[in-house]
């Protein structure tokens, strides 16, 4: 059964997965490391790859502390309600 809680839990798990990706160990093996994002010239649109890498870095920077609290709440919710 698909509920709102399963959607929240799935998004929490995806955010956790993005936050634990390590650029040097994992992403650079597939060509998605820090050197993969080439510096764009003025007026040039960034590539899709560069935009995804910037999104991953932004999520990792912004969501690190709130994810700790959300994970604790999800664990407590699972323990109490099963």
Distance between the termini: 15 Å
From the helix content, strand content and strand pairing, which structural class follows?
mainly alpha
Tell me the total number of β-strands.
0
From the alpha carbons, calculate the radius of gyration and give it in angstroms. 17 Å
SSE diagram, text form:
Layout: H1 4-20, H2 48-62, H3 64-81
Helix pairs in contact: 1-2, 1-3
Name its key features.
single chain; 82 residues
Describe this protein's structure.
The protein has 82 residues and is mainly α. 61% of the residues lie in helices and 0% in strands. It is built from three helices and no strands. Helix 1 crosses helix 3. It is elongated and about 55 Å long. The two termini are 15 Å apart.
Short description:
61% of the residues lie in helices and 0% in strands. The protein is built from three helices and no strands.
């Amino acid at each position: 059964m698909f509920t709102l809680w399963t959607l929240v839990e799935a998004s929490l798990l995806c955010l956790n997965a993005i936050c634990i990706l390590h650029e040097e160990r994992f992403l650079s093996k597939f060509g998605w490391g820090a050197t993969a994002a080439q510096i764009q010239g003025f007026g040039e649109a960034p590539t899709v790859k560069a935009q995804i890498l910037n999104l991953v870095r932004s999520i990792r920077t912004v969501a690190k502390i709130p994810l700790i609290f959300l994970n604790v709440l999800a664990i407590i919710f699972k323990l109490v309600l099963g």
